[in-house]
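Give me the fold.
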Amino acid sequence: MTTSTAQSAPVGYRRGDSGYRRITAALFAAGMTTFVAMYCAQAVLPSLATDFSVSPAVSALSVSATTGLLALAIIPASALSERFGRTRVMIWSALASAIIGLVLPWSPSMGVLIVLRALQGIALAGVPATAMAYLAEEVDRRHLGAAMGRYIAGTTIGGLAGRLVASFTLDLSTWRWALEVAALVALAFTVVFVRLAPASRHFSPQPVGLRTTSQALAEHLRSPALLGLFATALLLMGGFVSLYNMLGFRLSAAPFNLSDAVVGSIFLMYLSGTVSSAIAGRLADRFGRARALMTAELVMALGLVLTLPTSLPVVLIGVLLFTAGFFAAHAIASGWVGLLAREHRAEASSLYLFAYYVGSSVIGACAGIAFSAGGWTTMVGYVGVFLAVALWVAAVVARLARRTAR
């Protein structure tokens, strides 16, 4: 009886299986379409400000509206996937986002553009809210890390591709065509995802209610250590998006006067995050998560300071360090959440992502106010305050984690 049960038990996809190749390729495409759509607008912020005669803070709302509404929708989307299935929620989410993306470049006003970007954020929420649970259910535990890595790579490269595609198109045409081309790229990856994503084999629909979901969320919010990590996500992502939102304004103006294509190529710095996040994981295992997290945050702070001079090589080194430090810190903090949350880990991850995108939306939007008020120096001070608070929070989380482990 035991042998028969073991033989009939479902087995997850393993590396080398055709199913493993399909699901990881599908999730890579899902990460690409999500982040191309989410961050392509960041490359055209100066053009939006000029064309619609609005301030940098208002143009930055085209990014913040998407991430802000995504943050609000991510927990409900996660709950819907428990009831209606992982692939169904992700497919409809990606398709709805792609359709909105094709329409929004032709917005007649900044207000309409912001509203459509907000709707796109709601549509997008189903992919990040569901992707990790989908992989965890369908992939063998021994091969899950590599599968997750491919999905994260898709999100990283998608964020980079969205900015680069829009930037290079902008150098040849208008911001409208820049966003349209980015939308077509996102649609192409959506089609790849829909065609490749295997149907769920190990998913069982669960009754979803406000009470059960609220209880799971409340349990995590009562943990001071987890609250600290949620705060870390908010502070670091807010600072990261703030710098990149305003970077185009600085580099396209005197004394740099760089073209749109050259400014867009600065987003290649994202590739440093692919390397630093992998290194950070090994350093966290060897030296401890708290020490590794604070080191990554200090690297961010050093990079931020190096963006102050008017020497382009020094600024580029600063942006490189800031970017590498951010992705390293994000990798450590997000992994730490999974270790501290003994139960209901999906809800804990949703709360982390909620804080992550709230930081992107709120802090990223307010960066435009700081930049308009006092230029780059004031903007650096603005981000520096959040980094200082994040360092203090990391020290507190370290003490709480040590106390819990005793």
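Residues 140 and 225 are 30 Å apart (CA to CA).
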